[in-house]
Amino acid sequence: MIDVKTIRKDFLIFQNNPDLVFLDNASTTQKPQSVIDTLSHYYENYNANIHRGIYQIAEKATAAYEKTRDNVKEFIGAKDRRSIVFTKGTTESINLVANSWGGENLKPGDEVLITEMEHHSNIIPWQLICKRTGANLKYIPINEDGSLDLSDPEKYFTINTKIVCVIHQSNVFGTINPIAEIVKLAHEVGALVLVDGAQSTPHHKVNVSELNCDFFAFSGHKMLGPTGVGVLYAKPELLEAMHPFLGGGEMIRKVTMEESTWNDIPWKFEAGTPNIAQVIGLGSAIDYINKIGRENITEYETELLKYAQEKLQSIPGINIYGTVKDKGAVFSFNVENIHPHDVAHILDTYGIAIRAGHHCAQPIMKKLNIAATNRASFYIYNTLGEIDQLVNGLIKTVELFN
Ligand code: PLP
User: Fold this and answer.
1) Is the C-beta atom of 171 inside 6 A of ligand 1?
2) Cβ(121) – ligand 1 distance below 6 Å
3) Are the CB atoms for 291 and 284 separated by under 8 Å?
């Protein structure tokens, strides 16, 4: 079990903001001092561009950058370091696949299958590429409880399905989707699978080889790492066959005035100067998570989840969205007759930071027939005491409006 008191000491933001109750971790997480120090250390000691310089600090920077690739490979259970492409984040990773793979492989009549539970970043790239290629976009529906409706798979997984793109853990409901089952259904009809792991990777042990997904995307900033860095995992044979996404320096082998050839994977997909400091910082975030242990993280968050569930349910007029058993520590809820923005605003006056809005998942809001929800999402530095503060804040908010 993790020692939350000790963990909180690693996060200076809590010492600098003693009244802050930060419950917007699905949006972004706070950074431990080790990650901040790693960034400073790079800039103060060996700041140089990578893969090019033959002087010492450039070689050191290159080694640190490439070491993170090995770190990520181990962290997500990939078999081959060539599968790990550094991007700006989940959004860029999905756009890379939609454009490079989708642009080459989709044609009129093909189907891209996503779900009604997706974050906009796993909807819009597919809408755009479907429009460009003439493919059709289909949605697996969701149930009232925030689960996927997989009761009629033949209706959705067809011989026309070319790729299935699915969120691993919902940023609205917290639902953890049955990825292995979806991969099996997709592969049976010859379709590939892309998993949006933005919300699962920070909280649970992820093994892309066991999931047998074809693509997996996640962001560094949601798992204690810096902003501006993310990962696309892809099976190497897919990356080999795909055309580059962005063109420029580093991604080429030979350039003539007429045409060019491409660098080996994964560098074929890392055009230009990458986010060197952020990639190295991501490596440090992974070290921190590994030190705590992902089983311990899941175990602790399950305790937070159970406690919050019980406490939140006792608040008069509260409606919680997403009630499946298999879920992460994320709560979307509304309080009767009080607009979510008012709830979030009042809680903010008590120092409690939660999110209010559509959470970049407007199709879910449409399905639930609401405009917005409040959302409280937890991470390893949150405490049971903070859940009490949230609940007390909500009770005071209800009193204020009645
Ligand atoms: N997918 C999910 C499930 C998310 O929650 C988010 C961010 O909130 C994203 C994708 C997009 O991540 P990023 O903004 O880091 O690219």
Assistant:
1) yes
2) yes
3) no
Measure the CA–CA gap between 35 and 71, rounded to whole angstroms. Answer: 15
360 is catalytic: yes
- Segments of the chain assigned to CATH 3.90.1150.10: 4-30+293-400
CATH fit for domain 4-30+293-400, picks 3.40.50.1220, 3.90.190.20, 1.10.10.10, 3.90.1150.10: 3.90.1150.10
Phi, psi of 195 (to 5 degrees): -110, 130
Count of residues in the chain: 402
What are the start and end residues of each CATH 3.40.640.10 domain in the chain?
35-290
Q: Which residues pair with 356 in a beta bridge?
A: 374
- Best mutation site among 86, 119, 232 for ligand 1, i.e. most ligand atoms within 8 A of its Cβ? 119
CB 107 within 8 A of CB 135: yes
93, 95, 171, best to mutate for ligand 1 pocket (most atoms within 8 Å of CB): 171
End-to-end CA distance of the chain: 41
| CB 199 near ligand 1, within 6 Å | yes
- Architecture per CATH, domain 35-290, reads as 3-Layer(aba) Sandwich (3.40)
Q: Tell me the CA distances in angstroms from 244 to 78, 176, 323, one per residue in order.
A: 21, 32, 41
Answer whether 177 contacts ligand 1 (Cβ < 6 A). Answer: no
> Could you tell me the mean pLDDT of each successive run of 10 residues in the chain, 402 residues long?
94 98 98 98 98 93 98 98 98 98 98 98 98 98 96 97 98 98 98 98 98 98 98 98 96 96 98 97 98 97 96 94 95 95 97 96 92 97 98 95 86
Q: How many Å apart are CA 277 and CA 275, to the nearest integer?
A: 6
Cis peptide bond prior to 108, omega within 30° of 0: no
In Å, how far are 57, 99, 219, 276 from 34, measured between CA atoms? 21, 36, 18, 17
Residue 22 host element (H or E): strand 21-22
Residue 106 C-alpha from the chain's centroid: 25
Residue type for 82, please? R
pTM score: 0.98
